[in-house]
Amino acid sequence: MNDSATEATSSAGGTPNRAVSTVLHRLASQREYAVLALLIGTLGVVGAFNPSFLSGGNLRDMLVQDAPIVIAACGLTFVVLLGEIDISIGSSMGLLATALGLLCSPSHSALPVWIAVALTLLLGTSIGFLNGLMVTFGRMPSIIVTLGMLTVLSGVNLLLMNGKWITDLPQGLRYLGVGTLLHVPICLWAAAAAVICAVLLARETPLGRRIYAAGSNPDAARMAGLSVWKLKLFAFTLTGFLTAVATIVSVPRLSVIESGVGQGFELLVVTCVVVGGASISGGRGSVIGSALAALLLGLVRPMLIFLRLGVSATYWERAIEGAFILLAVLADHLARRTRKEPHR
Amino acid sequence: MGENGAGKSTLIKCLSGSVQHDGGTVEVDALCLPKGNIAAAEAAGIVALHQESTAFPHLGAIDNIFIGRELRRAPGLLDRPRMRREAQLLMERLGERIDVDRPLEDLSLAQRQMVGIARALSRRSRLLILDEPTASLSARETQTLFRILRQLQAEGVALLYISHRLEEVYALADRVTVLRDGRLVGTHAIADLGRDALVRMMVGRELLDQEESERGTADGEIMLEVRGLSRQGEFADITFSVRAGEIVGLAGLVGAGRTEVAAAIFGIERAEEGTVHVQGKPLSQGAVRASIASGVALVPEDRQHEGLILPLSVADNLLLSVINSLTRFGFRSRRKERASVEKSMRALSVKAAGPGVAVNTLSGGNQQKVSLGKWLATEPRILLLDEPTRGVDVGAKAEVYRLIRSLASEGMATLLISSDLPEVLALSDRILVMREGRLAGELSRSEATEEKILAFALPDGGDSRMETGRSAIPHDGNAAI
Amino acid sequence: MTTPIIDAEAVTVTKSRSGWAHRLTLPTRQECVLLGLLIGTLLLAGRLSPDFLTSRSQLELSTHVWELALLAIPMTLIILTAGIDLSVGSTMALCAVVFGIAVHAGLPPLVAALLSLLVGGGAGALNGIFVAKLRVHPLIVTLATLAAYRGIAEGISLGRPFSGFSDSFTFLGQGSILGFPVPGIVFLIVLAVAAVMIGGTPLGLSLSAIGFNETAARYSGLAVARIKLLLYTSSGLAAGMAALLFVARRNTAKADIGTGMELDVITAVVLGGTSIFGGRGRLFGTVLGVLLIHEVREFVSWQWNRDELNLVVVGTLLILSVLADSLLSPKKR
Fold first, then answer.
1. Is the pTM of this model over 0.80?
2. Which of A30, C156, C158, C268 is the most buried (most CB within 10 A)?
């Protein structure tokens, strides 16, 4: 069905090159496939070099590392789809970790774990909601709002921690980080749930389609009767909530909580969303792409270790991450050139 | 009906609630609609297809048609299969076979327009408003649309059809309302109104002054020579030349590639094949500065986005194209700048409180004058004008015409792109017509008529005549005003 | 159509909106607010702690601000064109590490410093090529090089610190001429050059034009790509200078210097009234923004000895000042 329709339009378009550029465009616009191919390719190459890379244990460890990034990226994808950005995710995570630790550590508030978790979720959601409020009602650019929040939240975090560490995390909380359910770590369940919900939201609900529409052409969205501000408020709030989820399932894995938790996390998440195919000006992007990109970027460090390049190799991790984004950007540029689309 | 800038589009935006009106009321069934409330207008059965792009380029036809009132199978869940079926059905009814999942940005202009129409048709409407829906459609597609509109009419839907093509109005309408300069001129039953009377209502006077100037037309030096200019998907094999003192009109439908050709000559975009020569010397491709230096200037179509920088002052805008030449040892020379600005403002009689006011406080006509002045300041010998009177009031229009004529009489080689056929006919010495990216024909001043231009411009070839449904259209002077 | 609204002031400004005069006009609303805040902070500080306001302690404290101030100059110009450079902190680290390695490899400090500036300019030019020639969104490009440049710095230094530089070099960061710190002199020279370029040459108007409407700027024949390339390159160069000042001041070069610097710089510029959407902004505002951040920070540390508190203060300041501006202006953008 699809093929015949494509043919129909390509013949209607009249130019013979149209079919070729259509194929190229499909490959390029569906960044998911490119990222997936790269992911499988990397796994294959490193696995051939060192088979233990593909062992169940190692794969699981890598997935566990990626889980919080995947969860947060599910939220941020919607924000970026709307042409906005949230760079406060990292320091928000730091503050949430501190809050979680202080709330349930026996030497501080000593609340039951489930109450501490609920309060942390509430706090994360409120931070996202506040970001959303400032962007919509304050009519401020999101990069400024979340830059300010990044600074404020990390300051508050440092004040709360006061240079100390939280080491006495109760067993119940530790379970969220290290425990398993049906032999699968809790954080992987959470990540899978987040991805499935986000994909359903994006593809199968009016809300998701409206977010795409509002990012694609905000004026037209308003003319179609959509409340763009509500969509933005929702996306920021969702991101706040998912950041809290990411914190709850990843931080308890650490035996101590210190003020450095979450540092640089926002850049990782933004990177994943961008490498996953989202356009920073909105309208284009997918949850699956962001999640796959998170897995791909998560490969960099283990890959450097398993290729046995020596200790020094791991120092190049960030350089390789940066190169990944530049490559994604270059690929995008070349694809756009074949399509003759105006620059943006 | 009404001329460009008469206020038609803004009026329907008020009706459909996407713009808030300052005064007056909109009543449906004797109930007053709240101002600027899209939802209320939709609930009352008012559906509008606006002229500017209201499409979502990254989304497919399904989403474009159903966004805002999606079909659901359970609370919060879409019924995709049904939406797909209905979208396909709608598009087939409109005679288009497209992939309804394909992002709109990959479809042709006409196909996008059809999706927009499908979107308007998909709503349960009691009043359907269409703002120039046929601007980029072929005659065949237009006929399909008209057939459907007549069906709706028979089903009892009220239609408000905005157009500046007389033939369409005569083919569809029962009554016609004319606006001019934002005011109501009158409403008449179409049967009582002759073409000339209708044109008079729109223009407010007899047709545009046809002042014939006795210029030497074909003997000037060849200033601009374009040979085999091509760019994939936009235009192909464009060859023509313009002589000193000549005004060459470039006509065609919206989307025929005229603007793209002008942009390629000026160097905004690079052409893939072909050459441009200015006074016999080749012009380097894709270099605006080189074009300006060789005496080429382009007054772009969209003055708000391409021509002017609205938040900047009149003076800054007038300086922008020449600022690098008004320097002393690399530093800006206030004296030279002031002289240049004063000269431009005087030459074009720009009405502004002073050179320091921001351009966005000026009227459309004065903005256009600043836009013209900005490029005339580069002292060009070849002037590319893209829709120079769009959204300009009648008075300023006449001034712009006078200016174009007087520049030509001083030896300016002018390429005039316009969708306003009377304008092209009134100004041009020679008319080139583009269709789907190619030059379809050339007409001399003496042989050119609107029919002949349209015959070249319409995609279905020579048969430009539209089949008339109920009323017969006289076969003369079907103007697009 | 209606005739334009006649503004009595506008009629008399016939000669004021171009050239030098335009740049020397009265402070904008945002700048007045900043000036008020700055004076308020200083008055409060003077009351609470008279020692803080002495010229001696001010000069001593000023050593912390010069790198930030230096980087804020090109950042203002970049944001003026609706761009952004997130990679300045990482570029600083890269330049510092390159300098350290070069000196330890036996190169004379002067050559090493030139090499380090070259690397900075090259790093900036790479950003510029992606932004100007390939027309990729600057946020994406510099996000990538934010990771990449620091990654390279970590990679080539293997995380080791370099120290023990000669006195003639550390003079650059610690010395003073006629009582005025050398880094301050470097900053003032760069500021003067930038101010003359903006106010006196066509560059200033070109930057605003690009920021407001890049398409129209291209139609006007402005060399948009070349100007952007120049800006990002100069931002990289400034990062190189800042790196040298930092290394000379601390007498150590390590791959983690300048972490988070980009956010401080952007905060100062935006606080100074430069619109993140481009078009509007002045160097004067940026100088005020830098000064305000600096004084607030130093005072908070001085008075309460809590560095983390000033993060909260600066972040709140940024949000409130932009919020006030957006609520006071009648319409969105």
1. yes
2. C268
